[in-house]
Amino acid sequence: MMHLEANNMIHRDLAARNILVGDGGIVKLADFGLARIVDEAIYVASGGGKLPIRWAAPEAYTTGEFTIKSDVWSFGIILYEIFTHGETPYSGNPFQAFIPT
């Protein structure tokens, strides 16, 4: 994550499925299909492509704005996946965490 930020990159698809663990515990981040090198702190997506909704930060799917902070949100979801041994985040409803009670 620090390396991505230091190189002005936003991954936009951080999820456990995109983390590779090799011999000796070497971890590599894969699938840079949605990644962007940015000049500004915010990248605004255009075109309405597919978005991994369960891993996307709320502002990413409501406004299309991606930042390193939205990658940090996705990293939190990865931690959820790790600590729950692979449960799908928001398995009942992808929006349930954001629906006011």
From TrEMBL:
InterPro entries: Kinase-like_dom_sf (IPR011009), Prot_kinase_dom (IPR000719), RTK (IPR050122), Ser-Thr/Tyr_kinase_cat_dom (IPR001245), Tyr_kinase_AS (IPR008266), Tyr_kinase_cat_dom (IPR020635). One of its GO terms (biological process) is cell surface receptor protein tyrosine kinase signaling pathway. It comes from Araneus ventricosus. Residues 1-101 form the Protein kinase domain. Keywords: Kinase, Transferase. It comes from the Eukaryota. This is Tyrosine-protein kinase isoform SRK1. The gene is SRK1. GO terms for molecular function: ATP binding; transmembrane receptor protein tyrosine kinase activity. Pfam families: PK_Tyr_Ser-Thr. Transmembrane segments: none annotated. GO terms for cellular component: plasma membrane; receptor complex.
